[in-house]
Specification:
Layout: H1 17-26, H2 51-61, E1 66-67, H3 70-75, H4 82-90, E2 99-101, H5 106-119, E3 121-126, E4 145-150, E5 157-161, E6 166-170, H6 175-182, E7 187-188, H7 201-207, H8 214-217, H9 220-223, E8 224-231, E9 234-238, H10 250-254, E10 263-270, E11 272-273, E12 277-285, H11 288-300, E13 307-311, H12 313-323, H13 328-332, H14 334-339, E14 346-354, H15 356-372, E15 376-379, H16 381-388, H17 393-402, E16 405-415, H18 419-436, E17 442-450, E18 454-464, H19 470-487, H20 506-525
Parallel strand pairs: 2-4, 3-4
Antiparallel strand pairs: 1-2, 5-6, 6-10, 7-11, 8-9, 8-10, 12-14, 12-15, 13-14, 13-17, 16-18, 17-18
């Protein structure tokens, strides 16, 4: 993973000339490229970990499990949110862990937590480091030092029960590694977030993530059957069972706890047969409201595809512009769409996976329903193009930052009756905040997950960066969007988690008593308050 951006350092993501021209004309680009600084130029403070604490931790995990060199600390200094990348690329991260500790098993993990509690050392659990909401920021709170607890040495499959279709893994296992393991057995977890290539399964569970194919396979909380949580006060072991009426669902309380209660060390997960067939289709709608109505029909008639994405007019326009005349635009047939009355319309991607016969029946019914509701099927090429590039957007973000373009995403969910109003309110708030900052931008949105009662809205916005004031510019837009979400009846996060960025809004999300319940649980499991300070729970009332 690049320390200053996303993914494989050998991946080339330069914008083609037509895409750069579009951005220059719509949001503006920098007069000169702004590449990241060299790793050696990144400024971090000397480690504050005492020699005694460092020696104790090294005695637990061994020399190979304890790193405090400059490069390793920089890599673990931030996640992949916009503020993280702005600071990393400039060589001025907000902070860095004083050391990186890598336990090799449950016993070492338990010993590390106990030692950190004794030494007043904050612990930031680290899976893939892909958080976009400040979830792995190395905050120490009131503690003497902070370490990143890298779970990379705990990434093994412990058991595969093919008859029950469950797999038990150490939480540091990467999602992509599990899929490679399951493939020869004809199985899949089916969890494919955009961070799939790098994310850990413990991180997915800790952040309550939703994969792109959640319509068919479910969200991560529906896949977790059992777990082991290592908390400073002790371990919680939850057996892998299909269902239980034994009191409140503790599994669901720990899924989404974001490392603030303890570290997930082990997971038992439901798996399913790998699909033998796939079909990803493009469907055009005259406008966003028509598309939303059609997707609601699919969800409420239990005909949802495995993947459903509906782009609004702005996102559809940008997708076509960036693809160029020989890409998606050519495949759709601009003249054909114009003749059918779909100029400036909205593109949806519907994806189906499974056994060929069942898939064919599901596809037929879904396409019949969307045609009835005003959709125009445009074939498989758009769907196949999306499928081929489904994990590539973060690479594009890196290149946009190099060109001086601010690019950020945020998401929410609401009831079907409120989708249109929330889409307008949040999009308008973002646009107004960008204009107020003197950087009018491009605001886009798509529906990304369907439910019987509502849907998610995923916003992306681009604008020229205010050089030297990038973080202030971002903060003003983030605040405006969050206020619009809360006042407009949406959830503050649908699948990006709470982390640091959304913590000030948790009281709006679950109420004051709900926050108090979480604080009481944290006090019980983490009495010294060392676990991931500053995340999930609000530190103070927002201004």
């Amino acid at each position: 993973m690049r320390w200053w951006g996303w993914g494989d350092p050998s991946h080339r993501s330069a914008l083609p000339p037509h895409a750069l021209k579009f951005l220059r004309e719509t949001v503006g680009v920098a007069s000169r490229p702004r590449p990241p600084v060299a790793l050696g130029q990144v400024q971090i403070d000397p480690s504050a970990l005492s020699e005694q604490a460092a020696a104790a931790l090294r005695g637990i995990v061994g020399g190979e499990g304890m790193r405090d060199d400059h490069g390793e600390r920089v890599v673990h200094a931030a996640g992949k949110g916009y503020p993280d990348l702005v600071r990393q690329r400039a060589g001025r991260p907000e902070g860095a862990p004083d050391a990186v500790v890598c336990p090799a098993g449950h016993e070492q993990l338990r010993a590390v937590l106990e030692q950190c509690a004794r030494s007043s050392v904050a612990v930031v659990p680290w899976g893939g480091g892909t958080s976009v909401v400040g979830g792995v920021a190395p905050l120490r709170g009131e503690h003497a030092a902070v370490v990143a607890l890298d779970m990379g040495r705990m990434g093994e499959v412990l058991e595969l029960d093919r008859e029950s279709r469950t797999v038990t893994v150490q939480a540091g296992m990467r999602a992509v590694a599990l899929e490679r393991y399951l493939a020869p057995h004809g199985l899949t977890l089916g969890h494919f977030p955009q961070s799939f290539e790098y994310v850990s399964l413990g991180g997915c569970a800790a952040t309550r993530s939703a994969g792109q194919a959640s319509g068919g396979y479910g969200r991560i909380e529906q896949m977790v059957l059992g777990m082991r949580l290592h908390a400073p006060a002790g371990d919680i072991d939850l057996a892998s069972v299909p269902a239980s009426a034994a009191g409140p669902g503790l599994r669901q309380l720990l899924v989404g706890s974001e490392g603030t209660l303890g570290v997930i060390g082990e997971l038992a997960l439901r798996v399913r047969p790998a699909p033998r067939a796939r079909s990803y289709e493009g469907v055009f709608f005259e406008d966003f409201a028509t598309g939303v109505q059609a997707l609601r029909g699919l969800a409420q008639q239990h005909a949802s595809p495995d993947v459903a994405r509906l782009s609004d007019q702005a996102e559809t326009r940008m997708s076509l512009a960036l693809a160029g005349t020989g890409g998606l635009k050519g495949r759709l047939g601009k003249a054909y769409l114009g003749l059918r009355g779909y100029r400036g319309g909205c593109l949806a991607i519907l994806g189906f996976e499974g056994e060929p016969e069942l898939l064919a029946a599901r596809r037929k019914r879904a396409l019949e329903l969307v045609r009835r509701d005003g959709g125009l099927a445009v074939g498989r090429s758009p769907g196949e193009a999306w499928l081929a590039s489904r994990f590539s957007a973060p690479y594009l973000r890196d290149e946009l930052l190099t060109q001086g373009v601010m690019v950020e995403t945020l998401e929410t969910a609401t009831k079907w009756s409120n989708v249109g109003a929330l889409h307008r309110a949040v999009g308008g708030a973002i646009a107004d905040a960008l204009s107020a900052a003197g950087t009018p931008g491009l605001v886009m949105c798509h529906v990304s997950h369907l439910y019987e009662t509502g849907a998610s809205l995923y916003f992306t916005f681009l604008a020229g960066q205010r050089e030297g004031e990038e973080l202030e510019q971002w903060h003003s837009v983030k605040q405006a969007a969050s206020r619009a979400i809360v006042s407009g009846g949406g959830t503050i996060t649908h699948h990006h988690a709470v982390g640091r960025d959304h913590a000030p809004w948790m009281k709006d999300e679950i109420g004051g008593e709900g926050v108090a319940v979480l604080r009481a649980l944290k006090s019980e499991l983490d009495p010294a308050g060392i676990m991931n300070p500053g995340k999930l729970l609000p530190i103070s009332d927002r201004g």
